[in-house]
TrEMBL record:
GO molecular function: glycosyltransferase activity
Low complexity bias: start-end ranges: 9-31
Domain annotation Glycosyl transferase family: ranges: 1111-1282
Renumbered residue ranges of the record's region Disordered: 1-31
Coiled coil: none
Glycosyltransferase subfamily 4-like N-terminal domain residues: 937-1099
Domain Glycosyltransferase 2-like: 392-552, 652-773, 1332-1452
Protein name, entry field: Uncharacterized protein
Length: 1603
């Protein structure tokens, strides 16, 4: 087993809920076993302690251990969840986890699946375990998972005694929520109550049927009287256990029992009556210890069925309590303020629709293999044919299931890429069928080579044997039961072709079970050397240059189970170029009984891994030891940590402080526990003036440097740079004064990694006082393209995605709150950038500069410190620093963060994304669907994106709207087609049936546009999302609305409303323009397809770039006096915008300021609100009326912005208003209402001030504040443009939309076959139309037998075979004559002198008697249903002259090395896709009018073997033109188009073979071309008189060389 197979994704998978009533039959989740038999354990007593997690089983185990019961030598230790220890025997825990994992179940037992069989190998292992433990007279074990295996263990150990521990459901669930370390429960809180029901139902059923061997106890009774517990156990089981010391064991506060009824109890009663039923049943059945049940029977009416949202709210309360605790700690409060117990969860809106997908299932949905993705891949291969290498796939084989071996091999033979060889070594398999299958595969494909080893060795030897067969440039490794994706080898080859210097390469992977279900994806970082020291993260698929493999001697014997890990460690030491493809190219099979899921081989694998790592440390000169951390032992995963010495180079710990004596004192006190020996502490006093702090600093033994900046402002970067000048140690450690050391070896660990070659910075795990992560590495791109801390606010003991929280790995940066770096390196790079990043981003910038110089940043999880973030300074970053950071790094891509993971938060969540490599050259036809075409924000935003992408050649936009407007003209000026649809499809209030009919009709109309992607604007256009879904066309949906969703769905029938909500599932992306707006819709994010792209303004567009208006000219044109201060309110006048606030506020300004202001309200249009606004203004005193100008909508906005002094936004609802961006671009201070996305644009006191919408007094107050405080007004104005730079600019926004459109296009579902149109044939086969299969031959002995066999296999019954031989000199005639003798069909052979191509083809047709001609060339093949499908379609319309279909392409083995044939193979797949508008039946002249007609590929029909022709059409048009040798088929196809209809069957009905003997290849090699003659015929010959004048003109220009 490979080491990469050991690691599992530790994130939980699919949770299952339970809602059925308490059953008296055994639950359906019991793990079954195949009659294991009894293990003989004479004279031993076995006690099994089990129960639901968090029920007190550890306490019972402690008591029994103290009483003399042996519970094992290796027990799982303490952690946050059980601070005194779990008391679980590692061997029993590992056994249970292994069996659960073999069934693809959660190893902690949170998952419930149908019946599964426990395999015999596990039974054997269990018996071995029991036999070993039975050396003791009195022994047992404790593990809550045992509850899932009760019948299993009872069958093996009939005399076993079971002690069941239970606790109330509200206490257990609340304990799980309070603990907060179970990722699965954090994701789906209802699993907690479901699991409690499952576990205790199983306990109750087992107890009822095995009463004599069981005790059932409530843990709260034990806390009250543990001695009584021991007494009852002794009595029932006839034991003599001693009484333990109660005071030593019992600490009641550990379990926090529920003293009084609370909302938790009420929740269980109200919403989970099944759990309460079960709890009362446990109380009634339990041992007399519980003579008085804790809860008496009562009657109640549950108000609802169990609801997941109840648990979600409960969990939120507990998370909030922990957050309050953290905040109170930071505020130095002595007491945590609890959430009141009266809080009751609030029921969600009825608008919430059904359950969503798991994130990876949503990812799989948009990453299906489809024709578009295949065509794109073919085009990339065609462009790069000359650079592509030969790949050798290596498979070691030993007794796999034949079914899976065949799938593994088939996954290679079905690759899109063809230049490969498959090298297989069978390692002495005892299954004879395997040898037979391998020999058969070897015969079928010359690229498959097999070596049979005479006896079984091991996986290392077998892999080396297979590799010895390889002749390719690169070796790729495939396990014998795993599978490659169809594009795997193509993507590898393309990358290697573009980057030939690559020496080692790896991809992402996922798991696949026996039913073909995919799960547990591993989206990996780019090359991360330190992560490889934690585990074999490279996994599958990986490959290496053959010369490197041979140089290293292949896999080393003795490292079996970790041979690939050992090789990866050795290879990456000598490889200079290591590449990662962020694509899932490999499916690792995880099935019951496979080595991938069996724990039996893992101890050896772990030992081999430790040995491989230890030797790697020795080779690299790293002084450290390797071990498995306790959590990895518990989880049974191959993850490793390193222990470093306390000796090493000198380190100076630099701690800046200003006052804050208590923080500094705590920090210095904690440093005393540091075990590293060679360090000193230097305090940087940044201007302390607090007497207590100054006195404290005076008496410190450490050196204190007094450093201040000249302007007395805080400049973290500058004071550290200055301090470093006075330091001489080898290393610097920057440490905040608000930190406290947790782990004594923290500095030893950091120094261990710092001394690894290439490491430039090391950061620590920083933890908030509430045990949540503050820093576990820095991820670039968080916070809308900036940088943030990974896993922030996750539990510090959680593992995180791929265990990243707990393992050492590389990040783009680490935090200077605790950062270690070499002093000389720090000085060489110029230290921190104190000019651009005085306070924020200086650490990130430093690490990024390190990276640019080839150094790495490392996160060290074993260096743990508490960080009271924000205790020293605030949280807000300077807008200047944010702008500088975005300017420098706005386009950076984080190499250590997968593009398949979301940047919406810090949790490394999977985002469903169709990420692709390569450049897409196809211009996408995009439907730009807009509700309006006016000059408001949403339509204008879409207009700018469409125009920019069209100019870039990425899209061909077609605008679709329901109302004319000024943007219609603007689009048309850009040459963009605009379609106005009237009446509006939802103009009437339809019933559901009518709605679906209307949508069907609209979809049919839209289908004619041949759209690649829909780009739909605004929420009311949900029905266009519906249309896209009906058509199978991917779409993106731009949501601008922040109002409650029901605002836009009022008046619709309930079923239509529900369908509108379901439409959120369908788009590839639902794009919101602000995070605040997105929050309104999160309950609808079932497909995980939500994203936020901030609007960017196009400063180069005419309104923004209008250089006509300077400030002076603008104010002069508006007759504004020099001393007047202009308040600008710009936006469409309407109630939503609330413009009436401003005139009312004017009336409340101090009189002296009323005289000095001028108000411009721009954006008027006729409406009732406009009239109300004007009436309001007219009601004001004349002197105030004159101060207000209401101006109409205009695109000339520059005039008003230039004239303005203060920008005001009075809106009640806004998502991410464009006008705010424009105001910031013009450097205006802003007054705004804090609604939705405005809060993301405007920062209070930074670039603007807020007032509550509609609060006139408050508006007047902030206006007055800005009028009177010129310094504040100037400050806000200066910051405004800097705050704007925090957001993506226009180009970045457009790039984001373009990327999403291309990804959406590739995410499309596979194209379905065209519907079969079957005529009603009557009578016998002879009454069906006769088809003449015409086979012109010349020296075709190599492939002719296959071709003839494909004719015999036809399902169509009425045919004849006409063979016209052109004087063959090989065995062609012998093959034909033999075929004639043995064939029941009519076969006519005609031999003649050598005619050449055209004459031979025509002669063949002349001898035919059929209504239809079906050509088949001697080297091609027909699918069995070929004739049937063709004739079915041809007979539906008498005007059809030709029917064609797609075809497969067969590339002969010898042709793989020929670049011309390879280019043809990749370039001429799926010719039919080159047509713009291909239909099952259409006139040929429609196809001749296709704008793509003369574009490559010129022949979009295909070769003669792919078509069926009506014989009369060939005869009418004179057959094939003998003037051509190469384009004679295309010439006839075009002439048929001019006179007949054309049929198309969207199935691959034939196979066209490419091989080295083809005339086409010889023509290409000789440079022969008929294109000029062909265009001349098109342009001049009367046969083409039917061509249109426009087409003739284009052809003429081509012919004359103008095009």
């Amino acid at each position: 087993m490979r080491e990469s197979d050991i690691l599992r994704s530790l994130e939980p998978q699919i949770p299952i809920s339970s809602s059925s009533p308490v059953s008296t039959s055994p639950p359906s989740t019991e793990l079954l076993m195949p009659s294991p038999g009894i293990v003989t354990t004479p004279h031993t007593t076995v006690l099994v302690i089990t129960g639901m997690h968090r029920s007190g089983t550890s306490l019972i185990a402690t008591i029994l251990q103290e009483a003399g019961v042996y519970l094992g030598d290796q027990l799982i230790g303490a952690n946050r969840g059980n601070i005194r220890g779990h008391f679980e025997d590692v061997e029993f825990v590992q056994f249970h986890q292994t069996v659960l994992r073999s069934q693809n179940l959660d190893i902690d037992g949170w998952m419930i699946q149908p019946h599964k069989q426990i395999l015999p190998e596990y039974v054997t292992a269990a018996k071995t375990l029991i036999t070993r433990k039975s050396q003791r007279n009195l022994w047992g074990w404790k593990d809550p998972r045992t509850t899932l295996f009760l019948n299993f263990w009872q069958t093996l150990i009939p005399q076993a005694k079971f002690i069941f521990v239970y606790r109330s459901p509200w206490e257990v669930v609340d304990s799980l929520y309070r603990r907060g370390t179970d990722d699965l429960i954090q994701q789906n809180p209802k699993i907690a109550i479901d699991s409690w029901i499952l576990y205790n139902q199983k306990i109750l059923e087992f107890y009822r049927t095995n009463y004599s061997n069981c005790i059932l106890v409530n843990i709260n009774k034990i806390i009250k009287n543990d001695l009584d517990c021991i007494l009852k156990i002794n009595q029932k089981f006839k034991l003599n256990l001693s009484s333990p010391n109660s005071d030593k064991i019992i600490q009641p506060n550990l379990l926090n029992p529920e003293a009084f009824p609370s909302y938790r109890t009420e929740i269980i009663k109200q919403y989970f009556p099944k759990a309460l039923d079960l709890y009362l049943a446990l109380e009634a059945q339990s041992y007399p210890l519980n003579a008085e049940p804790e809860l008496s029977w009562s009657q109640w009416q549950p108000s609802d069925s169990p609801q997941a949202w109840i648990c979600q709210d409960w969990l939120k309360i507990r998370n909030l309590e922990r957050e309050i605790e953290r905040l109170n700690t930071e505020l130095k409060l002595n007491k945590t303020q609890p959430i009141p117990s009266e809080i009751i969860p609030v029921k969600p809106s009825n608008f919430v629709s059904s359950q969503g997908l798991q994130p990876y299932q949503a990812w799989l949905n948009v990453n299906q293999w489809n024709e578009k993705a295949q065509s794109f891949l073919y085009s990339r291969l065609k462009e790069n044919v000359s650079k592509l290498p030969k790949l050798s796939v290596i498979i070691p084989v030993y007794n796999p299931l034949v079914e899976y071996l065949e799938k593994a091999i088939a996954s290679v033979t079905q690759q899109i890429y063809v230049n490969w060889e498959l090298c297989i070594a069978d390692d002495g398999s005892s299954d004879t069928e395997i040898q037979e299958q391998l020999n058969q595969w070897q015969k079928q494909d010359a690229r498959i080579r097999v070596i049979f080893r005479p006896e079984n060795g091991n996986i290392s030897q077998a892999s080396n044997s297979a590799a010895s067969l390889a002749t390719g440039e690169f070796l790729l490794f495939l396990d014998h039961d795993d599978q490659l994706t169809p594009d795997a080898l193509a993507e590898i080859a393309l990358y290697l072709g573009e980057h030939p210097e690559t020496e080692f390469i790896y991809s992402d992977d996922d798991k696949i079970d026996s039913q073909g279900n995919h799960f547990a994806p591993q989206f990996k970082p780019d090359w991360s050397p330190e992560l490889l020291l934690s585990y074999m993260y490279i996994g599958h698929l990986w490959g290496v240059k053959r010369e490197i493999f041979e140089q290293l001697g292949g896999f080393r014997i003795g490292f079996e189970g970790a041979q690939d890990y050992d090789f990866a460690l050795r290879a990456t030491e000598i490889c200079n170029q290591i590449a990662h493809l962020p694509l899932i190219l490999y499916h690792w099979r995880a099935i019951p009984g496979s080595t991938a899921t069996s724990a039996m081989a893992k101890p050896n694998s772990f030992k081999a891994s430790i040995q491989a790592l230890q030797e790697a440390f020795q080779r690299r000169g790293i002084a450290g030891t390797i071990q498995q951390p306790n959590w990895a032992i518990h989880k049974q995963v191959g993850v490793f940590e390193h222990q470093f010495t306390d000796q090493g180079p000198s380190v100076t710990i630099l701690i800046p402080t200003k006052n804050q004596k208590q923080l500094l004192e705590a920090c210095l006190s904690s440093l005393k526990k540091t075990t590293y020996q060679n360090y000193q502490i230097v305090i940087i006093d940044n201007g302390s003036d607090d007497p207590d702090t100054l006195a404290y600093l005076e008496q410190l033994p450490q050196q204190v440097l007094k450093i201040e900046t000249p302007d007395k402002t805080f400049n973290f970067a500058a004071i550290h740079n200055q301090a470093v000048q006075q330091i001489q140690s080898d290393y610097l450690l920057f440490l905040n004064n608000d930190t406290e050391v947790i782990s004594p070896h923290w500095l030893s660990q950091m120094m261990g990694y710092a001394q690894i070659k290439g490491v430039g910075a090391v950061g620590a795990k920083l933890i908030f006082p509430n045990e949540k992560i503050q820093h576990a590495g820095v991820v670039h791109g968080l916070h809308q393209g900036l940088a943030g801390h990974g896993f922030k606010l996750r539990p510090s003991k959680a593992n995180g995605y791929l265990s990243y929280i707990q393992v050492v790995r590389n990040y783009s940066a680490v935090s200077a709150d605790c950062l270690l770096t070499p002093r000389n390196l720090f000085l060489d790079l110029g230290g921190f950038d104190s000019e651009q990043f005085a306070v924020a981003y200086n650490d990130v910038d430093y690490c990024y500069r390190l990276s640019e110089k080839g150094w790495r940043s490392v996160y060290c999880p074993t260096a743990e410190l508490i960080h009271h973030e924000g205790a020293t300074r605030g949280y807000d970053d300077s807008p200047q620093e944010v702008a500088a950071f975005r300017h420098l790094y706005g386009n950076k891509v984080d190499p250590y963060y997968s593009p398949h993971l979301s940047l919406a938060d810090e949790n490394f969540r999977i985002q469903p994304r169709r990420f692709f490599l390569g450049s897409m050259k196809k211009r996408l036809r995009v439907l730009i669907a807009s509700h309006l075409l006016d000059l408001t924000g949403a339509p204008l935003h879409q207009y700018e994106i469409a125009v920019k992408l069209a100019k870039a050649g990425m899209i061909e936009p077609i605008v679709f709207s329901f109302q004319e407007g000024p943007l219609q003209t603007e689009y048309q000026k850009q040459g963009i087609q605009v379609i106005i649809c009237k009446p509006h499809p939802l103009a009437k209030n339809y019933d559901p049936a009518t709605y679906h009919l209307v949508m069907q009709k609209l979809s049919q109309q839209l289908s004619k546009l041949k759209i690649d992607v829909f780009y739909i604007n605004t929420l009311p256009n949900f029905f266009l999302v519906d249309c896209a879904q009906r058509l199978g066309i991917p779409c993106i949906w731009n949501i601008h609305e922040s109002e409650p969703i029901e605002t836009y769905l009022q008046g619709l029938e309930e079923e239509i409303t529900r369908h509108a909500l379901e439409c959120f599932r369908f788009p590839y992306r639902v794009v919101f323009v602000s995070s605040e707006t997105q929050k309104n819709y999160l309950d609808l994010n079932h497909s995980h397809n939500f994203t936020v792209i901030y609007n960017g303004i196009n400063r180069s567009s005419s309104p923004m770039s209008n250089a006509t208006w300077t400030r002076e000219k603008a104010r002069e044109s508006l007759k504004i006096k020099k001393d007047e201060i202009v308040l600008l309110l710009l936006g469409t006048v309407g109630s939503r915008k609330g413009q009436k606030d401003l005139p009312l506020a004017l009336a409340k300004l101090p009189p002296e300021w009323q005289k000095k202001v001028k108000i411009l309200i721009v954006g008027d249009r006729p409406s009732s609100y406009s009239q109300e606004l004007k009436t309001l203004v007219r009601s004001l005193p004349i002197v105030l009326q004159e101060k207000i100008n209401i101006l109409p909508e205009t695109r000339d906005i520059a005039r008003y912005y230039q004239a303005a002094d203060i920008f005001i936004l009075t809106s009640r609802i806004e998502s991410f208003p464009r006008v705010i961006l424009e105001a910031m671009a013009y450097g205006l201070p802003i007054i705004a209402t804090p609604v939705f996305g405005v809060k993301e644009q405007v920062k209070q006191g930074v670039n603007g001030l807020f007032y509550p919408a509609g609060n006139i007094d408050a508006l007047a107050k902030v206006i007055t504040q800005l009028l009177t405080d010129e310094k504040l007004r100037s400050h806000l104005a200066q910051n405004s443009s800097k705050v704007l730079e925090r957001f993506n600019n226009f180009e970045q926004m457009v790039e984001s939309y373009g990327q999403i459109l291309q990804e959406a296009y590739l995410s499309g579902s596979p194209v379905s076959d065209s519907p079969k149109i079957a005529p009603q044939f009557k009578g016998s086969a002879s009454e069906l139309p006769l088809v003449s299969i015409c086979i012109p031959t010349y020296n075709g002995e190599k492939y002719l037998k296959e071709a003839l066999s494909s004719v015999v296999d036809q399902t169509y019954p009425h045919l004849e075979i006409i063979i016209s031989d052109d004087s063959s000199t090989d065995k062609t005639l012998e093959i034909i004559q033999s075929f004639q003798k043995n064939c029941s069909l009519k076969v006519s052979l005609f031999q003649h002198e050598q005619y050449g191509l055209a004459k031979n083809w025509n002669y063949c047709v002349s001898q035919a008697h059929g209504k239809y001609i079906k050509f088949l060339f001697q080297d091609d093949l027909l699918e069995p249903n070929c004739l049937e499908e063709f004739v079915n379609l041809a007979e539906t319309d008498a005007e059809i002259g030709l029917v064609f279909s797609p075809r497969n392409i067969i590339l002969s083995p010898e042709a793989i090395a020929n670049k011309i044939l390879l280019r043809a193979y990749y370039g001429y797949q799926d010719l039919h896709q080159a047509w713009s508008d291909l239909k099952p039946i259409q006139t040929g002249k429609d196809l001749l009018a296709d704008p793509q007609l003369l574009q490559s590929p010129l022949n979009k029909i295909g070769e003669p073997s792919t078509i069926l022709i009506k014989k009369e059409a060939v005869e009418q048009l004179g057959g094939f033109d003998s003037e051509f040798k190469q384009l004679l088929d295309l010439d006839l196809w075009l002439r048929i188009m001019g006179h007949y209809k054309i049929g198309f069957v969207n199935q691959k009905l034939s196979s066209f073979r490419l091989h080295s003997d083809q005339q086409t290849l010889k023509n290409a090699e000789s440079g022969y071309s008929e294109l000029r003659n062909f265009y001349q015929k098109l342009y001049t010959h009367p046969d083409y008189s039917f061509l249109s004048d426009d087409l003739k003109n284009v052809i003429g220009r081509v012919y004359k060389g103008d095009l």
